[in-house]
Amino acid sequence: MLTIPCPWCGERDVHEFRSGGEAHLKRESRTDNLSDAEWADFLFLRANPKGEHAERWYHVHGCRRWFNAVRNTHTDTILAVYKPGEAKSEVSQ
Ligand SMILES: [Zn+2]
């Protein structure tokens, strides 16, 4: 059973959470100057690494807060969690 340690609530079952996708995406403030290809990249292209991946998670059945987690996509294990605004946790596998 996969568990995720919420930074506010502690260790909880993965079913209490919703994934918010890749963390630390650069959001364009002005999109009217983008080409169609740049706009498509902005909307649809995401990293899909095999290994360490920084992700956003929402504790929907708990504190209802967003946080970031570093997950190993190969082993499906959570390596670190940190609150929004905090620096990305550096982990070694
Ligand atoms: Zn929580």
Distance from first to last alpha carbon: 20 Å
Strand order, main sheet: write it out.
3-4-5-6
How many separate structural domains?
Answer: 1
- Backbone structural class: mainly beta
In N-to-C order, the SSE pattern is EEEHEEE
Q: Name the CATH homologous superfamily.
A: Folate-binding superfamily
- What proportion of the residues form beta strands (DSSP E)? 35-45%
Q: What does this molecule look like?
A:
One of its GO terms (biological process) is tetrahydrofolate metabolic process. InterPro entries: SoxD, SoxD_sf. It holds the Pfam family SoxD. One of its GO terms (molecular function) is sarcosine oxidase activity. This is Sarcosine oxidase subunit delta. It is a single chain. The chain is mainly β. The protein has one domain: Folate-binding superfamily (Folate-binding fold), CATH 3.30.2270. 10% of the residues lie in helices and 35% in strands. It contains 1 helix and 6 strands. The strands form 2 sheets. Strands 3-4-5-6 form a 4-stranded antiparallel sheet, with no helix packed on it. It has a two-stranded antiparallel sheet with strand order 1-2. The chain is elongated, with a radius of gyration of 15 Å. The model has no long low-confidence stretch (mean pLDDT 92). Bound molecules: zinc ion (ZN). The site of zinc ion has 7 residues, from loops.
